[in-house]
Amino acid sequence: MAPVVKVPVPAGSLKVAFKGDVPKVSMVHDDSPMYGIFKIGYSFQALELGDGTIMQELDTYELVAALNEYSTDPNRYMRMEMTLPAETIVVLTPGAHGLIIEEKWGKAILTRIQADSPLKKEIRVGMVVDTVSLGDGYTITGHTAMEINEALNSADESSRTLILKSPASDLSPRSGSLPTGRRIPIPMGTVDELGLKVTGNNAAKIDYVLAGSPLEGQARGGFIIDTLTHPEGHMFSGLTSTQLKNCLNRTAGVEGRAIIVSTPSESKQVTGGTTKLVLPAMGGLEEFGIQMYGNPAIVGAVGGTSPFQGMIFRGYQVQSVGWDDGTEFRNLDALELEEVVTDSSGLAGRYMFLTNTATGSDNVVDVDLPVGKLGITLKGTPPRLTKMTAASPLNGVVNIGMTADILTLGDGSMYHEMNTMEFTGALKSTSNQAGRKVRFVQLEEVGLTPKPYAAQTDEMNVILPRGKIGVTFKGNAPCLITKVNPDSPLAGKVAPGMAVDYLTVKRRDHMELNALELGTLIKLTTDVPGRMMKLRLPSQVNEFSKVPDEIELILPTGKLGITFTGSVPI
């Protein structure tokens, strides 16, 4: 049962509204003498007059009549049960609302009202925040306290409405409705700097907007991004999340960008949208860093310094090209397109429409390399593809700007984490070998494949093959493995950082070797089969083998096959 309060009621009009068979407070006017004393939802129990008369079990009509009849009585009291209203609607004023909303018993409960809150005298602690409606049309019901607080904090303060309900009432199921489609200006910055999380393989969709984002309160999770526009007139429709993020990141310094968004039910976007590029008045495809091939013309590569890098991708098909006077060409092959763009240099208002059928925006591309020259130029660490000839076998397969990740030779040797000199050197030295493969990646999106390392173990036995082993040792005994070459037969089998306990050659254990002694022994015995190297963790200092100070042996009869030298026989 709810607590009961007995309060004096002054003479005159109370300016309090009641409703129901059991009278409940439904409204308290701001200038009411009972403002802040009576709260919406309080239930009437009794009216006590100055002469001691007690009036109980009145309905709303009877209570209002009694209050009016005895309005001049200055000694009246009312006894009210402090029940919660079934529902109340609150419109928040601009500024801090002072409401503390917390998750309790699986519900978003109003647990406290701060002393300086403008709602302190109007609403009740203990109510459930059932619905939040914002001025842009965004509405959520049945959400958690954290989600409600985020929505209130991110909203324009000019219009925020709450529907509060008693925990005993029927609460609304979880649902949400987004505002109708809109154009949202995008400030300068990358996707991370904008605080956007975008997903979607067919249509880019806003997953959520981080707190503090410059787009907070405008862009909302669930919006479909139909179109991205640039101030120059470029328009990008139907982008996947990867393409959209790439375009936003590549043009992070551009002012005046905007996205046109809609709700999933409103979006008319289909897989494979269109891109409109506004071409500079001067220049041809070569100046723009765009390579085309095929009939109809298809984007083969976009140069790393192209003004359209990140806006179009390998595999985009040219639909039309034209300019402002109405001239338009359709279904051109690559040579015809290059000729039209070159011949129209100097004309203002040139544009190109492309269909977004890209395959070149893949994050990872594995390429089988033919024998001979590749016709590509790479720069930097790791090697980034910056240029390719029209005749390159990689043209139309790999996009300019991608990074060489892994080189695999025909014998299975794999090279990781190379710089440009190492990579091009390996390509040149193996140019006549068949079976080579290269993996190219979009470095910003997937990163490089980590170099495979064997895991360190307490101890391990390694059989050394004949020939070079491609392992570098350093230090005094016990020396450490510091490097395993990518083409080493032990790559992926032994781990850098392990220490060499001993090397067994022809059933003889060689121990306490420093790096120079071990390396020399391995080279001298390179043709000996069955050599075994014992490895341990360097921390196992008490486990390493040591040459004994003395040893007693029982000699068999016959020749021993041992040679001694020195004044002290060794």
Helices, strands, pairings?
Blueprint: E1 4-9, E2 16-19, E3 24-28, E4 43-48, E5 54-56, H1 60-69, E6 76-81, E7 87-92, E8 99-104, E9 107-113, E10 128-134, E11 139-141, H2 145-154, E12 160-165, E13 175-177, E14 182-186, H3 191-194, E15 196-199, E16 205-209, E17 224-229, E18 235-237, H4 241-250, E19 257-262, E20 274-278, E21 290-293, E22 298-302, E23 317-322, E24 328-330, H5 334-343, E25 351-355, E26 364-369, E27 376-379, E28 384-388, E29 403-408, E30 414-416, H6 420-429, E31 436-441, H7 443-446, E32 459-464, E33 471-474, E34 480-484, E35 499-505, E36 508-511, H8 515-524, E37 531-536
Antiparallel strand pairs: 1-6, 2-3, 4-5, 4-6, 7-12, 8-9, 10-11, 10-12, 11-13, 14-19, 15-16, 17-18, 17-19, 18-20, 20-25, 21-22, 23-24, 23-25, 26-31, 27-28, 29-30, 29-31, 32-37, 33-34, 35-36, 35-37
Structural class: mainly beta
Strand order of the largest sheet: 14-19-17-18-20-25-23-24
Q: Gyration radius, to the nearest Å?
A: 40 Å
Mean pLDDT value: 84
Figure out the total of helices: 8
Helix % is 10-25%
**Tally of strands:** 37
Low-confidence stretches: none
Shape: flat
Beta-strand share of residues: 25-35%
Query: Distance between the terminal alpha carbons, to the nearest Å?
Result: 102 Å
Largest sheet, in brief, is: 8 strands, antiparallel
